[in-house]
Write a structure and sequence with these properties.
Elements: H1 2-8, E1 13-19, E2 24-32, E3 38-39, E4 42-46, H2 50-70, E5 76-84, H3 90-105, E6 111-112, H4 121-127, H5 148-167, E7 176-180, H6 184-195, E8 199-203, H7 207-217, E9 220-221, E10 234-237, E11 256-257, H8 270-276, E12 280-281, H9 284-287, H10 290-299, H11 305-329, H12 333-347
Parallel strand pairs: 3-5, 3-6, 4-5, 7-8, 7-10, 8-9, 10-11, 11-12
Antiparallel strand pairs: 1-2, 2-5
Helix pairs in contact: 2-12, 5-6, 5-10, 5-11, 10-11, 11-12
The structure holds nicotinamide-adenine-dinucleotide.
């Protein structure tokens, strides 16, 4: 199974490690080093089979290559997955992370990592004990901490650019925006939207989290199960991926989809279905690049706060360019974004 997956993949290198004491599998997939060292988060997750973890790492690493190219950041794409049978805690988590750090370090400077699903800045502090190239360590340990605020800021700029495209103005006053998932990114995005005068609707499977946020910023809580059927101007998925699929798209009653979630489209054809439904789609890896811009910019590229804010605002400009290209090429916005990123890869 591993062999078939690796042969069918177009990336550069895969390392596989089996951690005997815990039964965890570790996969580091280096998709592309064409634009620079390969960077990507470390995801820890329970999968039905180890092969699913490998397939996830391969797919996500390609997404990182495109994200870095679309954001015009001089790094390539990678991803690591630690496939566990149960999320470890305490000493066992530390032991596993150190073992993983040795694997990551075996790539030298060619693999840089950061938090992803189920890993945190505190985990990055542990990995950094043995691997030099780790982003988003805790601020107290000299890192840039949680990338969520940067990501939220980039999504905010992306939403403004998308509103300008559809409604003729980037001013969000009076515009209704549904934020689905109000965690690290979604809560901060909702904050900025409320400040900009938007009518903010929030949905989260953690009802208490949604209630507290709504109370603080004057938003309206909507039930998570039926949230996407709500009539609103903009739907911002900031929870889990694959919310856009053949079943959900006909139920959408918005004009724009623009949120932080990774892998929002279940299938690439879903981008065409959104276009046919008259819904503008902000490609996920373009609009959610703020975390990479902020963390990599601060820690590796020497950017100051003004430069980072300008680059985050640049996400809006990139989306505007992608929307114009999609119209001119009569393609989906997703296809236009991929062509832009691949052109940069070709030029690297
Ligand atoms: P998080 O775990 O802090 O928050 C996710 C929130 O979504 C939680 O409050 C959770 O309860 C909620 N949620 C989960 N399933 C839901 C559902 N079905 N309906 C409604 N709410 C649901 O995660 P985050 O860091 O805020 O990231 C959000 C999304 O953005 C993820 O898909 C992540 O991969 C993506 N992303 C995050 C960053 C970043 O910097 N944190 C960068 C790029 C992409």
């Amino acid at each position: 199974m591993f062999e078939d997956l690796i042969r069918a993949w177009d990336g550069e290198e895969v390392a596989i490690h089996y951690d005997h004491p815990s039964g965890a599998w570790m996969f580091v997939c280096i998709h592309s080093t064409k634009r620079g060292p390969a960077d990507g988060g470390t995801r820890m997750r329970v999968y039905d089979t180890p092969a699913e973890g490998l397939a996830d790492a391969m797919r996500l690493s390609e997404g990182m290559t495109l994200k870095m190219a679309a954001a015009d950041i001089p790094f390539g794409g990678a991803k690591a997955v630690i496939a566990v049978s149960k999320l470890p805690e305490g000493d066992e988590r530390r032991r596993l992370l150190l073992s993983y750090a040795d694997l990551a370090a075996s790539f030298g400077g060619n693999f840089h990592t950061a938090p992803d699903m189920n890993t945190t800045s505190a985990d990055m502090d542990v990995i950094a004990e043995r691997h030099r190239y780790v982003f988003c360590r805790s601020i107290g340990r000299g890192g840039s901490g949680d990338p969520g605020p940067f990501t939220a800021r980039g999504v905010f700029h992306g939403i403004r650019a998308s509103a300008a495209r559809v409604f003729g103005s980037a001013d969000l006053a009076g515009t209704s925006v549904l934020v689905q998932g109000v965690g690290s990114v979604g809560a901060r995005l909702a904050d900025q939207l409320a400040e900009a005068g938007a009518r903010v609707l929030v949905a989260d499977i953690d009802a208490e989290r949604a209630r507290l946020l709504a109370q603080r910023i004057g938003a309206e809580v909507v039930p998570p199960e039926t949230a996407i059927e709500l009539e609103c101007d903009i739907y911002a998925p900031c929870g889990m991926g694959a919310t856009l699929n053949a079943q959900s798209i006909p139920r959408l009653r918005c004009r724009i989809v623009a949120g932080s979630a990774n892998n929002q489209l279940a299938e690439s054809e879903d981008a065409d279905a959104l276009g046919r439904a008259g819904i503008l789609y902000a490609p996920d890896y373009v609009i959610n690049a703020g975390g990479v811009i902020g963390s990599w910019g601060t820690e590796s590229l020497g950017w100051d706060a003004d430069t980072i804010e300008a680059r985050l605002a640049g996400i809006g400009n990139s989306l505007t360019e992608i929307y114009e290209r999609a119209e001119a090429e009569r393609s989906s916005t997703n296809a236009a974004a991929e062509r832009l990123a691949r052109a940069r890869l070709g030029a690297a």
